[in-house]
């Protein structure tokens, strides 16, 4: 069995900690095996390793999530990058073609598709393995995993059974997020929660792409990615397939996509240097800012503060967050990159003098910023801690705590940390965006030697 692990999401439901590049699966608020903080992505990746599926897993994601995935899961994780976000059908199709034309997987091989943010125990993934035998025994085109509901939730989709077999059910149809009253009736009929897990023979999806006129070569499909229909796999494939079966799962399954559900799995009520009064029952505080937060006499609430904003919400309505945060349509204030992370401390627009962005950056030892230049802005770096080297217009300089580096517009520049380093970067100019970044080289080794090093 091969596994496609879907890592997507726009980071809206767990705002303000999640954003366009740090979606919910990357928030380190769970307790790992060693007692250290662990993200949903790290938990799922660890569990796949424990049940023997990690080496057969390919992660499908967008370019913005590649760095944080490698930071959290390790450089060995195999990743297929979507050229643009186009929903789950294109992502699965591209990854399936990668399995076929790059990994040379036989079309008869079974492929399981899993979300990266499931909160389950290891027996869930042991059940995923059973989808292979269910497909073969039933002769179906698609096999789903369906969770046995423990309440009539209106948050989930439901799999409606047609016939019950020995170890699986034949699927009649699907109902998406019904009312609680309607959901209870569905449960009485044996309906299951749709947990977003399904399996098929690799040749099944390849035949669909062939009928649509798309190539089965990875490089060719990559170049045509923008022409794939922008639609979910459920709508494009599952709901158009008649012979579908489902494997019931009786164990624990949680969707931690809203604050009320996520806080239930947190090991402590307060994360950060904060004050929570004893009479604040069932209230959680998650604080990523360097200022204290105090909550007094407020129960059944979640209080979250981060670089992107501050949330104070009753837990019962925290699931409504997505309806409101479209108003905060601005750049992420915190991101993880391959070299480390940055946090925007201030962003000010001056009517006559353009924009100024001040950000704190951390660069890991032996990591580097690419050799690049900007035409529309000046930059100033102030090294706070650590040591390293800077290249300015092909000249190499040693830098350490206290060094100040002026980078006028048009100057080619790069920075490598020889020890863990932190710095303050001030950008000033008319255009402060990624559109003004001209990358010259991504590898430090390609830049040296430019000559002897000097102290800046």
UniProtKB/TrEMBL annotation:
Pfam families: MannoseP_isomer, NTP_transferase. Residues 3-267 form the Nucleotidyl transferase domain. Gene3D superfamilies: Jelly Rolls, Spore Coat Polysaccharide Biosynthesis Protein SpsA, Chain A. One of its GO terms (biological process) is polysaccharide metabolic process. Residues 337-440 form the Mannose-6-phosphate isomerase type II C-terminal domain. Keywords: Nucleotidyltransferase, Transferase. InterPro entries: Man6P_isomerase-2_C, Mannose-6P_isomerase_type2, NTP_transferase_dom, Nucleotide-diphossugar_trans, RmlC-like_jellyroll, RmlC_Cupin_sf. One of its GO terms (molecular function) is mannose-1-phosphate guanylyltransferase (GTP) activity. The keyword Magnesium does not apply. This is Mannose-1-phosphate guanylyltransferase.
């Amino acid at each position: 069995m091969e596994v496609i692990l879907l890592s997507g999401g726009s980071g809206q439901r767990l705002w303000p900690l999640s954003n366009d590049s740090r979606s919910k699966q990357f928030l380190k608020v769970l307790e790992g095996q060693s007692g250290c903080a662990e993200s949903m992505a790290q938990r799922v990746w660890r569990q796949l390793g424990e049940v023997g599926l990690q080496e057969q897993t390919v992660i499908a994601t967008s370019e913005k999530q590649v760095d944080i995935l490698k930071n959290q899961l390790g450089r060995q994780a195999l990743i297929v990058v979507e050229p643009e976000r186009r929903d789950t059908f294109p992502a699965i199709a591209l990854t399936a073609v990668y399995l076929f034309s790059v990994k040379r997987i036989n079309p008869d091989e079974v492929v399981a598709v899993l979300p990266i943010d499931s909160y389950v125990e290891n027996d869930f993934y042991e059940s995923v393995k059973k989808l292979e035998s269910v497909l073969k025994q039933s002769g179906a085109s698609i096999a789903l995993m369906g969770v046995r509901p423990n309440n009539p939730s209106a948050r989930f989709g439901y799999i409606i059974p047609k016939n019950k077999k020995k170890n699986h059910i034949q699927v009649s149809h699907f109902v998406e997020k019904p009312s609680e009253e309607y959901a209870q009736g569905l449960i009485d009929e044996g309906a299951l929660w749709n947990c977003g897990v399904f399996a098929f023979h690799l040749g099944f999806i390849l035949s669909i792409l062939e009928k649509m006129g798309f190539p089965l070569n990875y490089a060719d499909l990559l170049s045509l990615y923008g022409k794939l229909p922008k639609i979910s796999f459920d709508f494009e494939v599952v709901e158009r397939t008649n012979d579908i079966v489902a494997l019931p799962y009786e164990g624990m399954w949680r969707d931690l996509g809203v604050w009320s559900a996520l806080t239930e799995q947190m090991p402590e009520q307060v994360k950060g240097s904060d004050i929570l009064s004893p009479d604040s029952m069932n209230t959680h505080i998650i604080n990523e800012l360097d200022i204290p937060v105090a909550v007094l006499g407020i129960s059944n609430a979640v209080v979250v503060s981060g670089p992107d904003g501050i949330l104070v919400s009753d837990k019962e309505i925290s699931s409504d967050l997505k309806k409101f945060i479209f108003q905060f349509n601005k750049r992420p204030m915190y991101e993880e990159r391959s070299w480390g992370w940055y946090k925007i401390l201030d962003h000010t627009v001056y009517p006559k003098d353009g924009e100024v962005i001040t950000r704190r950056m951390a660069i890991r030892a032996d990591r580097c910023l690419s050799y690049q230049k900007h035409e529309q802005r000046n930059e100033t770096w102030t090294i706070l801690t650590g040591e390293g080297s800077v290249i300015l217009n092909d000249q190499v300089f040693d830098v350490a705590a206290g060094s100040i580096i002026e980078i006028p517009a048009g100057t080619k520049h790069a920075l490598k940390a020889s020890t863990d380093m932190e710095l303050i970067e001030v950008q000033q100019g008319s255009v402060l965006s990624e559109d003004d970044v001209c990358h010259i080289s991504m590898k430090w080794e390609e830049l040296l030697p430019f000559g002897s090093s000097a102290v800046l």
